């Protein structure tokens, strides 16, 4: 891989268009190189990869979409995102398959060659139908060696399938294959990393959720150094397994995790704060909560808020930590940053979103923009726009 620009990779979640009021038009395209579109599901009994919300993905009409077009046409988030690709030729869009909720469906599929074959064919069909640049596998996580070996085989077969697809199309283009990679030793030590790496374009490290409701003490959820789990410890392990630095993309959370009735990091806690959309988890855009103070640890590269009245600690990445992380990525020669997920960021108006504690936006810059500025120049390699094999008339015609 060339030492070209950095990658800035953002997850766009298809449920974000509902309560969070985050349609594709709010994606910060100038601060990103790749969008990971989350999530497609996989059927555990057949291996078929399927869209998880066709209304959001392919049907919803956004402003400017006609109700009178003849033929079979693509609408929804995928049309809106394809139009972003036309206007911003550096922007690649990758379909993310799996995620925490759907991951158990992978277990029977990866160990069965017939189901893997169906997985590959159906995933590539979705790519061509919807105008995408690649596939991302979010398998959380293989539980045993049989599944870990099946994961290697699935990636090999996907890589071969994507290359054959490009060849059939006569496309001088490498469709991308990536994964969401674990940073917890119990999970990453099961993986056959060296073999997986041969099929992958880059690795998106889930360098967050190191602490949370499942723990006994409050802690940092996304620290670079120190603690039982850290981003640097995980990344050094992957590098030791042969993954090149310029294929490692570091995950950054656009949310914070709450610990109630605690004195702070390392101290016991009891209970979780109410959160923005689910208990214990706050959007970055709503932090710091009014009445709380921000603390930063430049050795761990971590930050948190603390409310002395409520005795609530929230582990999150501040602007300062975003700056430190972007700088660390640059100095370490890593490929870039990844964000879960874009609707949690600051810097975009949310027309019609309900207000209230944990939802009201707080001042500050977009964390995606802060990290991007600290990393340096972004990659500008072009996306792909020709999908003559799509089932949709308007996409085959290039969305006139």
TrEMBL record:
UniProt name for this protein: chitinase
MF-aspect GO terms: chitin binding; endochitinase activity
Enzyme class (EC, first level): hydrolase
EC number: 3.2.1.14
Subcellular location: Secreted
InterPro entries linked: Chitinase_II/V-like_cat (IPR011583), Chitinase_insertion_sf (IPR029070), GH (IPR017853), Glyco_hydro18_cat (IPR001223), Glyco_hydro_18_chit_AS (IPR001579), Glycosyl_Hydrlase_18 (IPR050314)
Annotated catalysed reactions: Random endo-hydrolysis of N-acetyl-beta-D-glucosaminide (1->4)-beta-linkages in chitin and chitodextrins
Family annotation (Gene3D superfamilies): 3.10.50.10, Glycosidases
Organism, scientific name: Dichomitus squalens
């Amino acid at each position: 891989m060339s030492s070209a620009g950095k990658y800035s990779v953002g997850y766009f979640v298809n449920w974000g268009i509902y309560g969070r009021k985050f349609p594709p038009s709010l994606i910060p395209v100038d601060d990103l190189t790749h969008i990971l579109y989350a999530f497609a599901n996989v059927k555990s009994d057949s291996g078929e990869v399927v869209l998880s919300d066709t209304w959001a993905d392919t049907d919803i009409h956004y402003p400017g979409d006609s109700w009178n077009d003849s033929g079979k046409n693509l609408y929804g988030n995928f049309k809106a995102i394809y139009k972003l690709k036309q206007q911003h030729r550096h922007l690649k869009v990758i379909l993310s398959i799996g995620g925490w909720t759907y991951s158990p469906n992978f277990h029977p599929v990866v160990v069965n060659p017939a189901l893997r074959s169906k997985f590959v064919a159906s995933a590539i069909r979705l790519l061509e139908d919807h105008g995408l640049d690649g596939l991302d596998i979010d398998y959380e996580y293989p539980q045993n060696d049989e599944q870990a070996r099946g994961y290697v085989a699935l990636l090999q077969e996907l890589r071969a399938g994507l290359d054959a697809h490009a060849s059939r199309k006569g496309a001088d283009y490498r469709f991308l294959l990536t994964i969401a990679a674990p940073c917890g030793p119990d999970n990453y030590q099961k993986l056959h990393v060296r073999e997986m790496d041969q099929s992958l374009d880059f690795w998106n490290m889930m360098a967050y959720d190191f602490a949370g409701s499942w723990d006994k003490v409050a802690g940092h959820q996304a620290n670079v150094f120190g603690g039982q789990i850290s981003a640097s410890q995980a990344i050094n392990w992957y590098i030791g397994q042969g993954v090149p630095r310029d294929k490692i993309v570091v995950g950054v959370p656009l949310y914070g995790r709450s610990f109630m009735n605690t004195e702070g990091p390392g101290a016991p806690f009891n209970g979780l704060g109410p959160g923005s959309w689910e208990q214990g988890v706050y959007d970055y855009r709503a932090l710091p909560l009014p009445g709380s103070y921000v603390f930063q640890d430049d050795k761990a590269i971590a930050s948190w808020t603390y409310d002395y009245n409520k005795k609530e600690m929230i582990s999150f990445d501040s602007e300062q930590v975003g700056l430190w992380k972007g700088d660390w990525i640059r100095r370490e020669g890593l490929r870039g940053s990844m964000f879960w997920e874009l609707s949690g960021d600051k810097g975009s108006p949310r027309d019609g979103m309900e207000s209230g504690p944990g939802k009201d936006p707080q001042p500050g810059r977009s964390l995606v923009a802060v990290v991007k500025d600290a990393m340096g120049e972004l990659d500008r390699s072009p996306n792909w726009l020709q999908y003559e094999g799509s089932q949709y008339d308007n996409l085959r015609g290039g969305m006139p």
